[in-house]
Amino acid sequence: MKRILLITVVLSALIALPAAGQVNITVGAGGIYPAGTTFSGVAINGLQSGYGVEVSSTGSALGQFCTVLLGTTALGGQQNIVIEGKASSGSRTAGNIATFSGSCSINMGDGTAPLLGVPFTATITTNANDQGSIGLVLGLTTLPNASVSQGSMTIK
Fold first, then answer.
1. Nearest-5° Cα angle at 137, 70 to 155
2. DSSP tag of 37
3. Which of 17, 34, 35, 87 has the most CB atoms less than 10 A away?
4. What string of DSSP letters covers 124-155?
5. Per-residue pLDDT tens digits for 48-84
6. Average pLDDT, the chain
7. In the predicted model, is pLDDT for residue 126 greater than 50?
8. Which residues pair with 89 in a beta bridge?
9. CB under 8 Å to 119, separation ≥6 — which residues?
10. Is the Cα dihedral 47, 51, 55, 60 positive or negative?
11. Which DSSP state fits 19?
């Protein structure tokens, strides 16, 4: 009986581990942008992000990417920009840094039609507190890194 229990525990642990060379990126976090950050003319002060991405040893990726840029209109009203995408490639450049790319839609939150098929790259850098920074490139726009102050991020 003890042997069966031991085998079950060992097999469960092996199943939970990612395959060799595989990287799992999970984010459920909120962050703050530096003062003066804008995206398409909208002042951005923060973000809320949720991702689940798996990067294989070959560099292909599978997973969902969702970020809401928390913005303010020229008149001081709230304007949330919703970005939703699918990861298609990625890599782990250090133990605490992972990057993934793909294609996304961007809903500017102003009543206009969403932009479709926009290329994106996300760079996740974690620290000892499972926070850190999120870097985003959306089309031709590179946003400054957002400093994560809520939630958590993991790279395994």
1. 85
2. -
3. 87
4. EEE-TTS-EEEEEEETTEEPPPEEEEEEEEEE
5. 999 999 999 999 999 999 999 999 998 999 999 999 9
6. 89
7. yes
8. 60, 101
9. 101, 102, 103, 104, 137, 139
10. negative
11. P
For residue 100 the two structure tokens come to 């993934």
CA distance 100 to 23: 11
Domain ranges for the chain: 20-155
Q: What is the Cα–Cα distance from 86 to 115, expressed in whole angstroms? A: 15
CA distance 13 to 9: 6
Eight-class DSSP state of 21: T
Within a 10 A sphere around the Cβ of 43, how many other Cβ atoms?
A: 17
DSSP H helices, the chain, are 2-16
Counting Cα atoms < 13 Å in the Cβ hemisphere of 136 gives: 32
The pLDDT value recorded for residue 74 is 87
pLDDT on residue 21 = 80
Its pTM stands at 0.85
Task: Name the nearest CA neighbour of 148 among 120, 124, 118, 119.
Answer: 124
The separation between the first and the last C-alpha atoms of the chain, rounded to the nearest angstrom, is 33
